């Protein structure tokens, strides 16, 4: 029987430390500010945004949530971002993805000042990461790296398999593992013999978006399994991409869904907002 990685518990611990950091900043007259922009009526996005707002408040970050209607034009959204770029009380900007189809996502992400891009999605921050000079990081892979650190998971020389190649999870995850000297394989929907590749993994990170797709036969005995998936069924019940009940018996460490990767994603967002406030303070002086 493996150990369950307590993402919720680790997130609470880090948020508690952040709260103290924020209190110290406030003594100096600085309140970290986060602007979250949500366009349209995506139900899942609404829940995440609510969670982010609640956590931000808990650590004392000033958070603004801008809920814009589905019909918002690209131009109007660009103007909104420009307003936050210019606003000295806002240190972090997050535009919730996915955006409605009539808005060009690339264009929007590029409009955010890299210094306020607490999601780590701006091409400048992506470029820094992939050239080995990381600055702001995508929050989900960042949170997973913090879990490895906290649970003393040694990555050097290990076989790491990342299933999924999105810009927000799979690709940056692979790069962070590579930077820790893991031997990394990235798998995706066109991968042949996925089970065979996954069975070689000492570290298996799954980010595909298919409920309970990864069964015990994909998992090597003693592997560390990280489940990024967030799948909601008709009853609104959450399931990960990993069939937790079978995999827990085979793996050494597994993240649950919920209370695994999700709370760490939010915590890294808050952490990067606090760091950003500190950086912008030194820029001013
Ligand atoms: N917990 C958290 O904080 C977060 C959770 N998520 C969740 O993680 C999941 C993935 O998110 P995201 O990366 O944005 O998703 P995307 O839909 O952007 O990417 C999914 C990836 O999975 C691959 N894939 C799909 N089906 C298969 C399959 N049968 N076998 C192998 N690979 C497959 C796709 O391959 P291809 O490229 O070939 O299409 C693609 O690369 C979702 O459930 C999402 O809700 C996302 C962000 C944060
Ligand atoms: N610009 C942008 N940045 C993101 O970081 C981003 C995004 N867009 N779009 C969507 C995905 C998804 N995501 C999650 C965040 C928190 C939880 C989370 O808090 N999960 C809790 C519970 C969730 C629940 O109960 O619904 C948990 O796993 O315990 C999940 C998923 C961030 N994303």
Order of the strands making up the biggest sheet: 1-11-8-7-5-6
Strand count, sense and barrel status of the largest sheet are: 6 strands, parallel
**What would the principal axes of the Cα set say about the shape?**
globular
Estimated structural class: alpha/beta
End-to-end Cα distance, whole Å, is 54 Å
The CATH top-level class label of the largest domain: Alpha Beta
String of helices and strands:
EHEHEHEHHHEHEHEEEEHEH
Question: Helical segment tally?
Answer: 10
Q: β content, as a range?
A: 15-25%
- Count the E strands: 11
Give the helix level as a range of percent: 40-55%
Describe it.
There is one protein chain. The chain has 285 residues and is an alpha/beta fold. The protein folds into two domains: 86 residues, Rossmann fold (3-Layer(aba) Sandwich), CATH 3.40.50.10860; 123 residues, Rossmann fold. It contains ten helices and eleven strands. The strands form three sheets. It has a six-stranded parallel sheet with strand order 1-11-8-7-5-6. It is globular, with a radius of gyration of 19 Å. The N and C termini lie far apart (54 Å). The structure holds NADPH dihydro-nicotinamide-adenine-dinucleotide phosphate and 5,10-Methenyltetrahydrofolate (GUE). The site of NADPH dihydro-nicotinamide-adenine-dinucleotide phosphate (NDP) has 25 residues, from helix 10.
Which labels suit this protein?
Rossmann fold, six-stranded parallel β-sheet, THF_DH/CycHdrlase_cat_dom, histidine biosynthesis, alpha/beta, 2 domains, binds NADPH dihydro-nicotinamide-adenine-dinucleotide phosphate, methionine biosynthesis, binds 5,10-Methenyltetrahydrofolate, 285 residues
